[in-house]
Structures are given as structure tokens and as C-alpha cells.
Target: precorrin-2 dehydrogenase
Amino acid sequence: MEKYYPVMLRVENKLCTVIGGGNVAARKINGLLGAGARVRVVAPEISESIIRLLSGGADIEIIKRAYVPSDIKGSFVVIAAADDKNVNGAVLRDAAENGVLAMSADGRGDFINGAVKREGQITMQVSTGVPALSRRICRGVRLDGYDAAAKILAKYRKKLGRGGYEALLSEQAVRLAAEDAEAYERLAESAAAGTI
Model:
């Protein structure tokens, strides 16, 4: 199994280009939109999945034709999700020549997308080398309370410093965040003040 350096990319308001118009492309587009990216799609045909995104109000630039190398110009990230391996290969080569991060839906390129679970402020990604297993793990993880804790802890992050989180991250404390956010915030205030 290949080894990866895990990162979370900031794509908000950045141009991300998806080459391909099928269902796989639609999943990639949906993920980019969820992260606030400006999305450009280049494909001769657009699937119903993408049309549904458009009709749901998604702001997507559609270029309805075959891929040409200039389509990736100005892109922060490129995803090759065409149904043609040769097109995907060309996209990866063009991106490499232009210093643009790129991936192919078949796993080639600079990075991969693992399975993703989003809940409020929390974004979790799992990669196992077996996509079905990664999706299963994401579905099985319960984030109850962690989103509420994340929102409150973000307010006290600087005051808490490196060691101030212990009392706030126990299972009992996270359950408190889910059940009573005000009580959890009082606990965070006490930890930030050094009184617990």
C-alpha cells in the first residue's frame, strides 16, 4: 500500500476544475462545493447528477466540450474524472507541466480523496486503500457532541494553550457538549482561566 502525507486543502473561493461529466465527477464536484470552491466542469456530456446540482442552486461553470489543455489554466486543483483513461492521463500530464495539483478518479496523480464525513465544523477523511472500507468506517464513526465541542473550543483555543484541553476532551465532557452546550462552555471558560 502506498503511503500518503495527509492534508486538508483550503479551496474556498479557489478555482478547482473537474474534467468529466459523469456520476464520479458529480461526487467530486459535490465535495469541492462543500468546501467552498469555485468549480469549473469540462465535459462533452453532463450527467443527471450534475444537472441536479445545478438545479439545486450550485454555482458551477460548465464548459460542454472535450478537454483541451488550457482548461486547467488558473486552477488550484484539477480532478480528472472522465470516462476515458487517455483523457485522464492527458489531464494529469498537463497539470504536472503547469505545476497544478491533480488527481485522477482512478487513483493516479498527486493526491487521493478518501471517504469523507462532515458534521458541522468537523471534516474527517479516512483512507484505507479500499474505498468501500473507508466509506464503512466513516459511516460507523459517531461524532455526537464533537461538533458542539469544536465550536466552543475554537473560541478558547489561544487561552487554553497546548495542555489545557485534557478536561475538555474526555468522553464525559464531549457528551456534556452534546447535551448542554452552555455548561460545556462554562467548563471551557474555567479551563482557560486555569481554575480546573
